């Protein structure tokens, strides 16, 4: 998979890909992530990429021209499955969306900033609009990092058996069951006996029951999805 991220603050997006699972995925060659500074695609003085909105009102808007240039340059080099725009009024990201995005080959992610982008960018170039939650960030960069993390870890070959995504919370619309590690007893608090029994079919049943109980208690909305 190849992900091209268009941003006015590429600095924000460097470190998420320099550690842990995302770095390993890049080192293995399973995914390529390319950052594009929108300011490299403007002819205006001071590398201007934003302007005041027509009709008045506070806040700057990213202009269509540099975004068009950047997206057109990328599209002249390869085909893209989606051009995703990170925005608080997009569809809220969930595990199902992450699962389907992880199957794509080439994706562009456009990060908004200030008041967002000229509406014509959304009308002409964007194929999917994604929010990471009902709150407003200063820009789409942290949202793009969250999106990349949740998608990249699902690409086959990224996680090994120990970190398998199959047992993740949300994978079957269920929260994950409780987990324990050594010691088996801590200050009088014991690990459930079943987990020490060695009876793996029964352990599996216990985990399924606990996952269901936890979901019913904490996120009953997931069971009606
Ligand atoms: N940009 C600003 N707020 C955002 C959000 N909640 N999700 C995605 N992109 C955003």
Automatic annotation (TrEMBL):
Q: Does the keyword Endoplasmic reticulum apply?
A: no
* Reactions listed under catalytic activity: guanosine(37) in tRNA + S-adenosyl-L-methionine = N(1)-methylguanosine(37) in tRNA + S-adenosyl-L-homocysteine + H(+)
Task: Provide the residue positions that the database annotates as binding S-adenosyl-L-methionine.
Answer: 112, 132-137
Query: Which cell locations does it reside in?
Result: Cytoplasm
Which residues are in the tRNA methyltransferase TRMD/TRM10-type domain?
1-224
| InterPro entries recorded | Alpha/beta_knot_MTases, tRNA_m1G_MeTrfase_C_sf, tRNA_m1G_MeTrfase_TrmD, tRNA_m1G_MTases_N, tRNA_MeTrfase_TRMD/TRM10
Instruction: State one Pfam family annotation.
Output: tRNA_m1G_MT
What are the entry keywords? Cytoplasm, Methyltransferase, S-adenosyl-L-methionine, Transferase, tRNA processing
The molecular function GO annotations come to: tRNA (guanine(37)-N1)-methyltransferase activity
Biological process, per Gene Ontology: tRNA N1-guanine methylation
Q: What class of enzyme is it?
A: transferase
State the oligomer form and interacting partners.
Homodimer.
What the protein does comes down to: Specifically methylates guanosine-37 in various tRNAs.
Q: What is this protein called?
A: tRNA (guanine-N(1)-)-methyltransferase
Give the species this sequence originates from: Arenibacter troitsensis
GN (gene name): trmD
